[in-house]
Amino acid sequence: MVRKQFHIEMRHLKSEVLRMGEIAREAVTLAVDSLKTQDVEMADRVHILEEESDVLNLEINDRSMMLTATQQPVASDLRFVSTMMKISDSFERICDYAQKIARITKKSAHKPLLKPLIDIPRMSENIQKMIDLDLDAIKERDVRPTDQLEPMDDEIDALYVQIYNELLTFMLKDAATIDDATDLLFVARYLERIGDITCKVGSKIVFMVEGKRVWIK
């Protein structure tokens, strides 16, 4: 009965972390869409999701510590519990970055965008796919989806460099664009960091499943 309850709690923990990933994915999607459409109400929904992620992350941490203290898991079970807690923290950080993007939406919603957003939504689309890969790997305890993360992150990095160079050109040509260009540059930087986090989640999944420490860039 004790082991049965332990496995029930493990399933609950997994479900909660998967929900955290879904929240993170939705938060990034809404944040970038809100910026693209200058929709303040959509940006407000990002703030709600970020608050939800804070609460859920605390619950996941509490459940993980309770399982460790009361069940004393070993080997693969211990790796699972500790990794779920760390992955939850990573998803919560993604929500924090999404909230930062939503704040830029609210700051700039009263005026036209400096330029149509093309590459920033492409970064967001890649991130959504990368989070889905992480979630698939967690669901199946299968590391194969994580093999796709690095090339997708390379594309995000390339898009960031492209955006940086384009916005720098705007600022050099017209000092009046500096504030708006800087805001978009921050958005691109936040998305680049989110891409890195999804790769780190993939590395954690490999450790959880195989007990091997790898570095997905």
Structural write-up:
This protein has 217 residues and is mostly helical. The protein has a single domain, classed as Methane Monooxygenase Hydroxylase, Chain G, domain 1, CATH 1.20.58.220. Helices cover 84% and strands 0% of the residues. The protein has 6 helices and no strands. The protein is elongated, with a radius of gyration of 19 Å.
CATH class: Mainly Alpha
Helical/strand content category: mainly alpha
Mean pLDDT: 95
Q: How many beta strands in the DSSP annotation?
A: 0
Low-confidence stretches: none
CATH superfamily: Phosphate transport system protein phou homolog 2, domain 2
Largest sheet entry: none
Approximate strand percentage? under 5%
Helicity range: over 70%
Q: Note the run of SSEs as H and E.
A: HHHHHH
Report the radius of gyration as a whole number of Å: 19 Å
Helical segment count? 6
CATH fold label: Methane Monooxygenase Hydroxylase, Chain G, domain 1
Quick recap:
This protein has helices at about 1-35, 40-70, 75-110, 120-140, 150-175, 180-210.
